[in-house]
Design a protein that fits this description.
The protein has one domain: Electron Transport, Fmn-binding Protein, Chain A (Pnp Oxidase, Chain A, Roll). Helices cover 23% and strands 42% of the residues. It is globular, with a radius of gyration of 14 Å. It starts with 12 loop residues before the first helix and ends with a strand.
Amino acid sequence: MAAYPQNPSAPDAPYLAFWRERHLCTLTTPRPDGSPHVVPVGVTYDPEARLARVISDRSSTKVANVLAAGPEGARVAVCQVDGRRWATLEGRAVVRADPDRVREAERRYEERYGRHPRPNPTRVVIEIGLTRAMGRG
């Protein structure tokens, strides 16, 4: 993997391969007071659509933080680390409750993490429109 930056819609092969490996990630969202809220999550990366996706319950704090930012969405970052390798995706997050979008996020989660997420009738997806990608192999 090349040193940062990466093109979020056309990453180099090692960067993309790292995002296909099974890793726990973090999502950083801004609280209403501006301080960072950082939580562990599963993330999927879709460079063709310039999207990262995080599934969540609609009652979670991360969802509330994104919604509190308004219709333009919240500026967020997702990150994964494996020893000295790391990768970060940044962009603007919005919450989607559309069942087709949630199913697509669940499908991608299962593909990356090797298991279907537990059933959750109040699941939503946080979609992050990517503006920046960086990392180091």
